[in-house]
Amino acid sequence: MAGINIYKILDNKHEELSEYLKGSYRTLGQQVIQLTVGVNEETGEILGVTFQMELFFGSGADGKALSWNWLLNAFGHQDILIDGSPRSVILIQAEDCMYAVTFGHSYFKIDQFSDKEWAFEFARRLKYKNVRTTAVTNPNSQRNRTINTYLEYENLDLSSGEALTKLKANIELPNGFSLFSEVIEIGNSIRVNIEGPTLQGIAEVINFAENVINNEEVKVKIPFFKSVKEPEEILALKEMMVRDFENDLMSIDFSEYQIYATRVVFRDNHEYEFRHRYKSTRSDKVTLESIEAFMREHEFNTKEDLLEIRVAVFEDGKSIFSTNIEKLIYYTNEESHALLADGSWYIYNEDYLQYLKDSLYEIPTEFEEIYDYSELAHDKYLEQVFQVERANDNNKGLDDSKLRKSIAQKHYTERYYNDWLVELGFTNFDRELEAIGKHKLEAMDLFKDNSMYAVKFGKSSGKLCYAVDQSLEAIKAFHRGDIKIDVKIENVYLWLVLERKSELPLINGNPDITELNMLILKNKLDQWKKEVRLLGYRPKIKINYARD
Fold first, then answer.
1. Is 8 helix (H, G, I), strand (E, B) or coil?
2. DSSP labels for 344-394?
3. C-beta of residue 102 within 8 angstroms of C-beta of residue 3
4. What digits encode the pLDDT tens for the residues 239-258?
């Protein structure tokens, strides 16, 4: 059996890929494969597709026999011996479509030209007998990438908040089917195993995949990321990303592994070298801290220099490929429902958004107008405190503006709100910190009726996600017994006080949180819900509004 790794190339990358191959590889020959694909029912004309194939080769040094010498033979060349890292690409043109079949390490580069939707559109139309391995992305969660392995598992089950990035499975094939075996891998490419591989067989596999995509119904929902293909859209997203980085470098995340074709490259199994303007630094990991240290060492600027950094990847002491830092960055743009991953921009597909929406509907959500924050009432309270403090002899040296500022800082919005809610029956735990080793943790903001509350004001994911992280960290610590609170907890609430002009639409009298235009927050809420449930508590959300 020979593994055949097939990419479909993005329409706007045909010329760029051709130029790259001509500049980086040797051309070893061309072949033309003609396939008969049907008959015109009206005219009786035989319909065919022409596959024009060109072989590109990057050689190594003499040594052992090359495992894919059959490919060189197919283009009229003799077997060769190698001792380096040979690589090869078959570039295939079929009508208006371009494909690439990769051998050796060539897939590292070809990945960036690929249409990553193609393989998953094929996967959605297959029937599965045995799912072996899945790699999923969990955007905006603490475990943003996960690999799962299964034994005798027939269903391709994906949870809300997950997007499939790689799949290995046994599929059902038609009786008498002999193009490839039932074991298939889906990632940025389609990888199949062929007995006695030939160029004719490769053309038939491509034709089979296109027929399935164009003629078969979708059999399984697969949340995945759809490629952003328009250069103007990509440029706009990149500009927004750089602006976000300037404001908060923590927007950057680096995943534990990357997917190249159908291969998983783990971050900790390689060495790395950061390069920029002929300056370099070695590192054993690609992390936010290592990138920041590199930039500080050489006095680089986030806006101008960050995306110009290159990362060389070393395996067993040898550099196997290098890439731009942008291809390792993980970033979400909420406004456009877009994601940067592996150097490409994606839009969350409909299956992903629907899974997420259905999951959020499972979280009980409450609204009671009596708990809305009033800026007018807060100002009135601050004035009352000011009058009391003005009469205090200790404040005689302060002018009115400084005294008012001091009072406003002490009785800031969330502190005032939590104190006010004590009058309505809640117990205030705000600012009461529990020591866990050297770390101090705020267990909760409020407590009432066996329920703990994490309270946060905000109008963006950046603000509100803090409450999600605080809530999850606190309930985990409580569950482990790391913090001691003499109360019984049954419900874990996120109390979000939204700073927005319009209220959320209601479903059965309760706010519809799926209407929030905060994708990062919704992803975090989805993960929060699951983890709180696993710990044995009931996750709930309380919504209120900040009023003038």
1. strand
2. EEEEE-HHHHHHHHHHHHTS-EE--GGG-EEHHHHHHHHHHHHHHHHT-GG
3. no
4. 888 887 776 644 555 555 45
User: In angstroms, rounded to a whole number, what is the distance separating the alpha carbons of residues 207 and 215?
Assistant: 12
pLDDT tens-digit profile of 32-56? 999 987 766 666 566 789 999 999 9
> What residue ranges in 241-324 does DSSP mark as E strands?
253-254, 257-260, 263-266, 271-276, 279-283, 310-315, 318-324
| Maximum Cα–Cα distance across the chain | 104
Over the stretch 299-334, which tens digit does the pLDDT of each residue have? 888 778 888 888 887 777 777 677 788 877 878 888
- Say what the pLDDT of residue 249 is: 44
Instruction: Go through 485-498 and write b for each residue having 16 or more CB atoms within 10 A of its CB, e for each that does not.
Output: beeebebbbbbbbb
Count CB atoms within 10 A of the CB of residue 536. Answer: 10
Which residue type, as a one-letter code, is found at position 159?
S
Q: Is the pTM of this model over 0.70?
A: no
pLDDT single digits (tens) 332-354: 888 788 888 777 888 888 888 88
State how far the alpha carbon of 139 is from the alpha carbons of 63, 159, 160, 470, 520, in Å. Answer: 45, 12, 11, 18, 8
Non-local CB neighbours of 409 within 8 Å, separated by 6+ positions: none
Contact 289, 296 (CB under 8 A): no
Chain-centroid distance, C-alpha 290: 21
